[in-house]
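Quick note —
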Amino acid sequence: MRLFVLARHAQSTLNLEQRVTGDPALDVPLTEQGSNEARLLGIQLANLPLDVCIHTRFPRTRLTAEIVLAGREVPLETEPLLDDIAIGELEGSTLVEYRSWKAEHARTDAFPGGESLDAAAHRYALAYRRLLESEHSSVLVVCHEVSIRYALNGAASSDSLEGPVHQIPNAVPFCFDEDALERAAAGIERLRQH
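Predicted structure written out below.
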């Protein structure tokens, strides 16, 4: 059986401040709690053989992966398709401001100077299909809250990418077999077109 473990990066300083960023060039450090979360995730996955660890271009995902895999020889690969949503002019906004903008716009509307939620969903579906096409049988993916939420809701045949699962905690593993990840990719594609 092939196994894909998806985990959100550990708590960052922006998580603590309840601010958002979609810029991979911005180096947002992990908090002390975040480092502890990553170590705990490493303990949870210590007895699982991993072929590779995929992370996004965001430094907080790579740092989380490095802490999780400390002492293990697991190759790290970057997958930009799993990057967080590019939010353009909303960069650094509070979660309240970000959610307020989302509530007033359709999923097809791009964030000012950024991308739309549907464009990001399309990227995520492509990324999951790319994982399925790889030769890897056991993969850790350290990414962001939205890409995991969409995968969980897509795999569950939900009628929305936003639910029923909405809150994704930091550094918690979510496991998909090959069939579930295929359902996730197909579900994301189906739901982004509505």
